[in-house]
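Subgroup meeting minutes
Present: P.N., E.W., G.H.
Scribe: E.W.

1. P.N. recapped why we're keeping a running log of single-chain structure predictions: easier to compare across weeks, and new members can see raw inputs and outputs side by side.
2. G.H. added today's entry (259 aa).
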Amino acid sequence: TGNEVLEEDHATGRREFSAADPTEATGALASYVARRLRPQELAADLRDAFSADAFANRAYAIGVATLETAGPKRAKVYFEACLDRDPGVQWARLKLSLCDEKLGDWDGAEKLARAALDDARTRQDRALEAAALSRVGVLLQWRGEFAAGREAINQALAIARQRGDRSEEARLLNDLGRGFVKQGSLREGEATFREVLARNRELADRRGESIALVNLGMVAWQRGDFEGAKDLLRQGLAITRDLHDRDTEVICLTNLGAV
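Output recorded in log:
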């Protein structure tokens, strides 16, 4: 429920990219990283242009890839470079907030998330507003301010429902479930994770399904239902192996070892 994805060491090697200028070279590197991470498809963040500045977009994309593969400390450099080039890329500010959270700088993370939220409301960018509210809500829950955290996440949920974004609804419900469990409200947490599981199955989101199963497994473990916990975690593990999702597989194996 509150477990972080374990980071793995990755093999390094020398790669050279020929290009007419640094921006083009950065783009080539970002595309290479994306293909290495998701060879079956181009990473979604590389398809999105958040800035008129190509360098800012590529710095953001490399930051996303680095966050997945090398962790928040290394990824911060790219998000900071993106914002230095174009301070208006609020999605990079939210990624910086996530990095700071993972590095233990809760105050810095919340300040960044609230700055992005203020900008989203000024520009009436509803998608950004929902994402920023989610960040603020998660941070408040982790500080122990559960009522305020749930209020922020529920506001984000309302926006997701208005936009018809069912995947985002499932993700936000998962955030609510994690807050309930952290508060010790296992019954509410379990009910919320079961709703997340049902929604992800409806959406055929197998990775979301595996995460919901893992979270339900950890709730069962906290209730003392060790056999139930193992069954749920094994179901989640089977899906992660089908998807070749190494990060979630490591979480499943780690939690199975703890049960």
